[in-house]
Design brief:
Structural class: alpha/beta
Number of domains: 2
Helix content: 25-40%
Shape: elongated
Number of strands: 19
CATH class of the largest domain: Alpha Beta
Distance between the termini: 42 Å
Strand order of the largest sheet: 3-4-5-6-7-8-9
Radius of gyration: 24 Å
Number of helices: 14
Length: 371
């Protein structure tokens, strides 16, 4: 007799658990909002709320007091509108060509990045709001300084845009002493002088944490909401948000000289006891982590070293020491926690915490706490 859907749902078959503390997200936003005051603090929820989950994060931030949200792409904005009918929503990616009417219908405020977008939005005759994005040194999205200067002189065009803010984006705020920070701050002050009385928005997570010279009227923190590190050293203590656990699939014995994993990158130096875990790079746990010298998971608060490469679905860990004698198939061990953070794992993978967090895959059983 084949099992029914109900039968399947009575057993946890997942290879990994991702636990999200929504209460920590709310606490982080409140801390950032205090720093941003007297300006407003928005919430950046692009990339499925940095991989956490757009709907639960959006409701959590809204209930915490956040009323303004930023996403990257229009489909994210349209989805977010279904969750938060009264929120102010900005789309960082600007307008989709010939798509202004859809933005207006869903009350999405585009961040206007080109003069073509400016003209298309102006054709709506000022009925709907937008932000003006000017590039101050990142050479990515945004009007050039010259284009902004020309627009500031075109009162007829400017008057049809219904702008709420002029904004820019910091390239190196994670490095407090980088000289580009001062260049961008000076350029942004120049841009603001072109549009007197229009509120300004410059600060990302790192800028929000660093000081008033970055913050202006609207801060736009992203990674900091989720407990990730945006600047070193971090001037404020943020609350960790995610815990990642992997199921022990198998416990096996191996001999000195045996090879572990793809590419034969690990040869055992002693007789060993090995736990095979049910998470891999298909779940967003990076392939390069396995070969990092200090890479480990946590079992009962003790580090268990990784052995060989992380594969698509599996990780091998060394549980030879006596304090791991109780490890059995079916139990869960921690890959990310309050000490073994996304930034620690990112360091092993030679990347950044943003990439680890946003890459956490759909195969985990997700549990949301608080909020």
């Amino acid at each position: 007799m084949c099992p029914t859907t109900t039968d399947f749902n009575t057993v946890d078959h997942s290879g990994g658990h991702l636990t999200v503390n929504l209460g920590s997200i709310a606490q982080n936003w409140r801390l950032l909002a205090k720093l941003a005051a007297p300006g407003e603090c928005a919430g950046v929820v692009k990339g499925n709320a940095y991989g956490i989950g757009l709907e639960p994060v959006a409701h959590t931030l809204w209930n915490a007091g956040c009323k303004t949200f930023f996403v990257a792409l229009p489909q994210e904005a349209f989805e977010l509108r279904t969750y938060l009918p009264d929120a102010t929503i900005y789309c960082l990616g600007g307008l989709t060509p010939t798509g202004a009417a859809d933005y207006a219908a869903h009350r999405i405020n585009p961040c206007l990045n080109t003069m073509d977008e400016v003209r298309e939005w102006a054709a709506l005759d000022g009925e709907h709001q937008a932000a003006l994005h000017v590039d101050t040194g990142m050479t990515r999205l945004g009007l050039t300084m010259e284009e902004a200067s020309s627009l500031a002189l075109d009162n007829a065009l400017l008057g049809r845009l219904n702008l709420t803010h002029v904004m820019s984006h910091l390239a190196c705020a994670d490095e407090p002493t980088h000289p580009l920070n001062n260049v961008q701050i000076a350029n942004f002050e120049q841009v603001r002088s072109l549009f007197p009385g229009l509120p300004g928005s410059l600060a990302n997570s790192a800028g929000t944490l660093q000081g008033a010279r970055f913050r202006h009227d609207l801060a736009r923190p992203g990674i900091a909401l989720y407990g990730g590190q945006s600047v070193v050293p971090a001037p404020e203590v943020l609350h960790p948000v995610v815990t990642l656990e992997a199921r022990v699939m198998q416990v096996r014995l191996a001999k000195a000289g045996d090879i572990v994993g793809y590419g034969a990158t690990k040869t055992l130096e002693r007789d060993s006891r090995i736990a095979i875990l049910g998470v891999g790079y298909a779940d967003g746990y990076h392939r390069l982590v396995g070969n990092a010298p200090d890479a480990h998971v946590m079992i009962n608060d003790q580090p268990a070293p990784m052995l060989g490469r992380v594969s698509m679905d599996l990780i091998a860990t060394d549980i030879t020491e006596p304090h791991f004698d109780d490890v059995r198939p079916g139990m869960f061990v921690e890959l990310i926690n309050s000490k073994l953070t996304v930034d620690v794992v990112a360091g092993w993978a030679k990347t950044i915490g943003y990439e680890v967090l946003t890459g956490l895959g759909p195969r985990y059983r997700r549990t949301f706490l608080g909020g």
